[in-house]
Design brief:
This protein is 46% helix and 24% strand. It is built from 13 helices and 11 strands. Helix 8 packs across helix 12 and helix 9 packs antiparallel against helix 12.
Length: 294
């Protein structure tokens, strides 16, 4: 079975095509194709409330290219999700209709709660009886989920994202709201809180930290060290010395500060970095949907 997920974010747009196999009860997801295109819809939307004509044209071309790949790989099930940039743009739904007419791809403009639900579908193996704070930082929003004894007890989306923060479009009230949410829902916890970080920026911070083999976590002190390293380099140096893409080089610092703010509100000193995100959750959802139908 071949599945495809398209994640239309505020900083970039991603396509992943996965081959799912089942043998003797074991299910394996093998990535066949992954493309990330740096189309920053968030800079348009968080400033002017709409997607610009230039980015609209690029977006339509990109969706046509993705549709060709989906067809060439003979994908059986696919899902196209758009998050904060498209849901906040005044012309997002109009563009989604244009994409449907042009390519046949139906864009689902999802809210923060649905986004969190899909991401959580990829986190099952990392959740146990401890208390966890899951932090997913995107370009336009941050989704927080709290787990206690393997059960999600609270969830909320905040208009705090890497692109939005870079463009100075985050209000002080949003930062206070996030801090209050974390402290209220973790009040009374005596054990150390473990965070789970998802999103491209925390994966890059993890990579820069040069972790030991088979280690999938970051200590708070290590994240602070990486942030100091990033702050000590210019935009160009981050590209050339750390091998960052230009559209990662500018947002990685504000994104890291968001993760740190959430960790510090939770008084947490460790973050698991599982390298999963929305697209992986969509794959799990599509597989479950396809197997139910069969």
């Amino acid at each position: 079975m071949r599945l495809a997920a398209v994640d239309i974010g505020s900083n970039a747009i991603r396509l992943q095509i996965t081959h799912v196999t089942q043998y003797q009860g074991e299910i394996k997801f093998k990535k066949l194709e992954y493309l990330r295109f740096p189309l920053r819809l968030g800079s348009d939307v968080f400033s002017t409330k709409k997607i610009s004509p230039g980015n609209r044209e690029k977006f339509l071309k990109l969706m046509q290219a993705f549709k060709l790949l989906i067809d060439l790989y003979e994908v059986e099930e696919h899902m196209v999700c758009a998050t904060s940039a498209m849901r906040e743009s005044t012309n997002g739904r109009e563009i989604a209709k244009e994409v449907l007419k042009l390519t046949g791809l139906k864009i689902q403009i999802i809210d923060g709660n649905r986004e969190a639900e899909l991401i959580n579908m990829a986190l099952g193996q990392y959740i146990d009886n401890r208390t966890f704070l899951h932090i997913d930082v995107g370009g336009g929003s941050t989704e927080l989920n709290i787990y206690k004894k393997s059960r999600k007890t609270a969830s909320m989306s905040f208009k705090i994202g890497s692109v939005r923060t870079l463009d100075e479009k985050v209000s002080l009230s949003q930062w206070r709201k996030m801090d209050t949410f974390i402290k209220e829902h973790l009040k009374g916890e005596t054990a150390q809180i473990t965070c789970i970080g998802t999103g491209g920026n925390i994966n890059k911070v993890f990579e820069i930290s040069k972790p030991r083999k088979n280690k999938r976590y970051l200590e708070l002190a290590t994240i602070l060290e990486v942030l100091d390293q990033l702050n000590g380099l210019t935009f160009e140096e981050r590209i050339h010395l750390l091998n960052l893409n230009p559209d990662r080089s500018d947002v990685i610092i504000p994104a890291t500060k968001i993760y740190l703010a959430a960790m510090q509100s939770a008084n947490s000193h460790r973050m698991i970095v599982p390298d999963v995100g929305l697209k992986d959750g969509v794959m799990s959802y599509l597989f479950q949907k396809a197997t139910r139908i069969r």
